[in-house]
## 1
Amino acid sequence: MKILLLVNPFSSSVTRRSQVLIGKTLSADHEVTVSETRRRDHATRLAQGAAVDGTDLVVVLGGDGTLNEAANGLAGSATALAPLPGGSTNVFSRTIGMPDDPIDASLTLLEALEAGRLHRRGMGKVNGRYFLFHTGVGFDAAVVEQVERRAQWKRWGGHAWFIAATVDTFFRHFDRDAMTFTVEHTEVGAEPGRPDPSPATGVMTVVLNSSPYTYLGPRPLDVAPDATLDRPLVAITMEKASAASLVKAAAASLSGERGLGGIKGISYRPNLASVTVTGTSPLPHQVDGDHLGETDTLRFSHEPNSITLVLPHVPAPDVAT
C-alpha cells in the first residue's frame, strides 16, 4: 500500500522520536512517504496532492485540526484517511478506538489495514468546509478562541486549561445577551423547502457528525449518542449560557446515558440532512476544534459516503483496498 505520513511537528504530543519510529513501523510492509506541515491549510494541499498521485492512504500524526485539513483534501476521493494521536485531546482518534500512545496506535493501524477495515463514511459540511466530528457556534466557539490565543498554555495545561478558559470566557469574553441566533433544521426525508415548524433559538449550538463531543481526561462528554459516522447530523442548541445550564449539561454528558436529549432549555434534533444558523450579529464558530472566525450565517449539510476511513474496531470491510 502507498502511504503518505503527514506530520504536524508543532502538535502537542509529536516528537522527532515518535515520528521516526512510526515511519519505520509503517515502512515494514508499505511504501511510505513522510511530509511535514508548515502552516495553516498545508495539510489540505498535501492530502489533495496525495489523492491525485494515487496514494492509497494518508496517515495524520497531529491534532484534530491537522486531521480536519487532511479530510478536506481527501473528501470525495478514493484515498483513505487514518489518524494517529499527536495533539492535546485527539477527539476523533479516540472516538474510533485508537490507543492514546501514537506508537501503539500505529500498530493498531497496521492490524486494521491487514484486516481490510476501510469503510466509506459521511462527514458534515459547513459553509463549504467538511468536519469529521463537530462544529460549534456561539459560546462553544468563543471558548475555543480563548484557548487558541494562549496556545502555549494549551500545550502544557491540557484539559485543566480548557476548563479554566471556559470559566474565563463565561465571565469576561462572551456577551450572553447580545449573542443570540436562530437554528432551522431539515430532517432526512423532509419535503424540500418546507420551513422548520420548530426552529431553535439560543447562544450556543453544536452540530455533530459523531460522538463524544470531546474528552475530559479519560472521560467522554457524550452529548449526543445519536451522532455516529453512519448516521445523519445531530444539532444541539442551548437557549441560555447560564452557570446552572452549563453544569447541568456537563453532568448529563458525563453520565453516559441519554446525552443532552430531554433537558429543559436545550433543543436536541437528530437525523438531520441540513441545518441553518442565522445570527443577529456575526457568529464565532469552530470546526473540529479550530476557531475559524465570525460570520452571519452558517449552512450545514450531511455528506454521506464522502470519505474512506480506517476504523480499527469495525469488523466487516465495505471498501476494497
## 2
Amino acid sequence: MKNYKLLVPFVLVVLFVLSIYMTFDSNMKTDDQYNDYIFAARSFAAQGIVVDAIENYTFALEIKDSLDLQMEIAVFYKTHNRIEDAAECGREMLKSFPNRVEVYGLLMNIYSEQHDYIACFRLADTMQRRNLPLDAISETLIEINDYYFFQGQYEDVSVFGGGYCAVKTKGLWGYVNETGRRIIRTQFLETGPFRLELAPVLDTESQAYFIDTEGNKKKVVLGVDNVVKLGAIEDGVYTLFDGKTWGLYGKDDKPLAGGFDEISSFINGIAAAKRNDGWMLIDSTGQPVNSATYDHVVQDERGVVYRGERLFVKIDDHYYLIDISGNKINETGYEDVKMFYDATYAAVRIDGLWGFIDTDGSEFIRPEYKDAHSFSGGFAAVKIDDRWGFINTDNELAIENIFIDVKNFNSRGCVFISFGDEWELLKLYKYNF
C-alpha cells in the first residue's frame, strides 16, 4: 500500500506531461492542417480553380478564424467576380469586427463596383455614428459624391417650396414631397407653391382655396366671383387675379390694394406690383415700401422678389442689386439676372455670358456660361453647348450637361430635369439613402 501511494504522484506527473505532449502534438497537427489548407487554397486560387480554392479556404476557416483570413477570402471572391459573395463576407466581418476600418474600406469598394451607392452612403453614415475615421472610404466617397438616380415621370412640374413641389399628370396637378414621394394626388386645375404649410389651388370646379400638406382644405376664398390665379399666403395676406386685375387681399378676404396689372406673391413681407408702366414694392397693407418705381422687379418661379435682404430691379436698360430701401449694393448694371434662390449666389449676365455674385454684389464665379440659374442646395444649373448640367460652388461640373431643361435643387439633393417631353426627379444618392 505504501508503494502504491508513492506511485500515484509519479503517475499523475506522467499523465500531465503526456497530456501536454498530446495537446502540443494535436496543435502541431492542427497548424499543419491549417497551413496545408491555406497552401492548397492559394495554389488553386492562383490557377483560377475557384471551387477547390473556396473549399480549402472554408476548411482553414473552420480550424482558425481570423480577420486576416476573412479579408483574404473576401478579396479572393472579389478578384474572381464573385461580388455578392465578397459583399456577404464583408457584412459578416462587420458583425464580428464592427470597428475595423479596413472592413469598411473593402465593403465600400465592393458596393461601388456593384453601383449600390445607397449602400455606400449608409456605410459612411455607420462609420460616422461609430466615430470611425473616414480615411479608408474617403476616396470612393468623393468619386460617387454626385452620383444620382431618377424617379417619376410627369407632364409638367413647378418648383420646390416649403418642402413640396407641384407635379402634373393627365392634365391635373398634385404634389410630391422633398424626396419625390407623392403626398397629394393629382386633382387640381391650378396650384401654387407651399408657403408656411399652405398652398393655393383651384379645383376642377374652379373653386379657389388653400390646402395643407395633407391636401385638406383649410381656407376658402370668399367674396370673389371669378378667381383665375391665386398667390401664396403669408400672415393671412395673399394675391389674387380675377381675370381683369390683380389685388392684394387680407385675412377677411377684403381687398387691401387692387387695380394692379401684375403682382408677385406676398412673401418675406414684400410683394412687387405693377400699375400702368411702373413697378413698386408694397408691404402687407398694400402701401409702397419706398418712393421708387422701377421698369421691372425680378421674381423667381415661386413669386419671391425679396430674399436675404436683397432684390434685383431694372432701371433703364440694366438690372441692379438693391436693398429694401432702394439703395444700390454696387454700381454694376447687369444685362439680365436671376433672383437669389437661397440667399447664397445669384446668376447674372454680363457681356452675353452668365456668372455669379454674392449678396454683397462681389463676383463669385466670372461670367462664362451661355445661361444659368442661381445657386440652390449647393448647385447651380448652367447651360453648356445647348444642354443643361450642374456646377458646385467650386465651379466644377458636378452633373454632366445632358438635360434639355432643369429646375433648381432643393436641400435634400432633389431636382426636376427634362430630357424632352417629360420631367423626372433627379436624386443625389448622398441625400437619399
